[in-house]
Amino acid sequence: MKQHTYEVQVAWTGNQGQGTKAYKSYKRDHAITAAGKPPLLASSDPAFCGDPARYNPEELLVASLSSCHMLWYLHLCAVNGVVVTDYQDDATGVMNENRDGSGAFVEVTLHPRVTIEGDADRAKALSLHEEAHHKCFIANSVNFPVRTVAQITVAPVAMEARS
Description:
It is built from 3 helices and 9 strands. It is an alpha/beta fold. The strands form 3 sheets. The protein has a 3-stranded antiparallel β-sheet, with no helix packed on it. It has a 3-stranded mixed β-sheet with strand order 4-7-9, covered by helices on one side. Helix 1 crosses helix 2.
């Protein structure tokens, strides 16, 4: 078994001079970095006093699931002769918040819209989403359902490609 280690740094940047003296006395702003990469500016969800202009951990979790699925899907299409020319996903996550302030995600639904070349197998393209889901590292690591509602569009073959 191979093991991979991932290192990131999270630095709180929201101290406005009083630290956490009071619940409203500090910003939830922070920067996420990894060696050799630009910082990702983050905060908490605006419902929890966060900055709406920054990514929040909940969005990043949904994005991580969507990204992992897409990368596996593209890989599987490439090795199965399905040529993808466009991939878009409008992923949604649902989190329930408890009375004590704790919470948990209860589901994420991926909505990939994939365009494949006209001579590709549409049924195969659709079935590869299930395989991608089963291989996705992130989906295999969460304790809530991750659903995929995929749409496949077959692009017409250009006239010059037929000759």
